[in-house]
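Homework help thread (please don't just give me the answer)

Our assignment gives two proteins as sequence + structure token strings and asks us to describe the second one. The first is just a warm-up. Here they are:
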Amino acid sequence: MTESKADRRLLPRSMAARVVILSSLLAVLALLAIGSLVTTIYQGESRASFDRLLVAHRYNLIAAVGLDPDGSLTGEPQFGDLRYEDTGSGWYWEVSPVDTAPSSDDAQLRSVQLDADVPVPSAQSAPFNDFFERIYTGAGPDGRLVRIAEAELQLGEQGTPYRFRIMGNETAFRAGVASFRRQLFGWLALLGIVLVTINAAAIRFGLRPLNRVRLALQSVRSGQTRRLVGDFPPEIGPLTTEVNALIDANHDIVERARTQVGNLAHSLKTPLSVLTNEADAIDEPHGRLVAEQAAAMRLQIDHYLQRARIAAQRAALGQRTELKPVTDRLVRVMRKIAPDKIVRSDVDEDLVFAGDKHDVEEMLGNLLENAAKWSRSKFSLSGQMAERNGRAVVILTVDDDGPGIPQDQAERAMKRGQRLDETVPGTGLGLSIVSDTAAEYGGQLQLERADMGGLRARLILPAAPFSAPQQK
């Protein structure tokens, strides 16, 4: 079944949060049901026990009260319960003639603290059983509810009917049930909090293998590993197997793309080489023109083949290049190429480029060659890690003390074939290649005024996590 839009609005996107919410809701509903059931059972059992106590006291009352020779009620019932002697306790007893109104002054016996008549309901509202007994709830003398166990018996030779009534405090009984309910639901609420907490912790623990999968994928993407490796539970095993198969297929596609790009480069460069050689053999202006155009075509082909190769490499997972060895080697080369100029280098040790080594060598090589060509006496290379738009990047900066580029011409200088000084040999593709290659990796090339007075070329590239060498 597909998930409806309403479900997506009501439930969070997090799978763990959904499981916690739904399981917690079920736990709360179960605890509420348990609380209601326990309260109902407790109330029923307490009611039955309360009624049994009243009936037992009524039998005690019947056994203790009788008629003396002149027909008057006599007897001193002993219940063994001090509540019958406590004023305001809500526990009373009473024996009175059935055929006499409660307000009559005829002989009757009752508790000392029972100072008012308790209404007697009709047989229709509180029916008797077959033994002329009934239990009902009524209003006590002080306005509180009382539970009444009543029986009608005939006393004396004339068989005069008398009403025997035992009254217990119904208000206190209900208050006790309510107190039990509050305590029960209080403890159930505490239990619910504990269960929800344990449930959330258990779900978080149970989903930890998914976090390990995420970390393993991150390692693959950053180039630290080539495939998903780890001790995963059987439920996640098929997922990791399919992901590894996808990674292998991705690498196969990239390798085929690289092979095709290489074949295309070979098939194009061979005819161009023949054309260039033939043009060089012609010692005429037309021959030189053909040779120059063939060289330009070769550079254009190299440029677009490189872009195709980079696009294929970008599709591959795990590309990474540690920059410190690359920059150190390029600086050594520059010092040999320009021995009369000062070349400084300040590149952090932990810089890692999320891309191919050949590409970053070509980009930095172009920038350093450009600085060596235009600088008067010195140029420098620096590199550090930074954060742009929430992602880690590597910033490589090449400064020189040459004439620089006016700010309004910086964008033009990064276009293919643009040469700001036609007197200097070149094709005008150097900065363009750097800019396009950086863009293929999601980076960029920025041209500014350097503190030295010349050009500052800032190359911003995606960073990969640094892997420190392990001690043996």
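The one we have to describe:
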Amino acid sequence: MGARAAVTAAIEEDRQTRALVLVSFPLVGGKNKESREQTLLDLPKDVDVLFVSGSKDAQCDTADLANVMSKMNARSWLICVEEADHRCLTGRLAAEWLRDRDVNTRRCTLSWKEEAAEIHCSGWETHGEASKSDAEDIEPRRKKQKRK
């Protein structure tokens, strides 16, 4: 419910939300598997959204999510965790995205090998075209952070 609640809060008029990290967003839910697409479509264009979703997440098919992302006003990125279900653990990548998001690279794939307890990251890849205005818009929002 956290990802869905974050979207609802970001839509409210007085909010100044600049970025959302939506881990395991429940695109469908309830007994009748109703779509929750509209809340994502209601996000304003000045909000950046990072989706982190498992390839085996019964509540968020990544192909359906990609379709919704293509219709959103807000700019969006996707980290797909291969073989992960709705409970995938992905906070570190989300933190990296908040710090260094690049409008020219929009997709990252993780593979989890449970038997070996290994995670492989593809790195950020180009997925679709980012407009020039996207690149210009994001620069003022980035803050330089000191690395330790």
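TA reply:
I won't write it for you, but here's a hint about the kind of observation we're looking for: Strands lie at 19-23, 28-29, 34-35, 48-54, 75-82, 107-113, 118-121.
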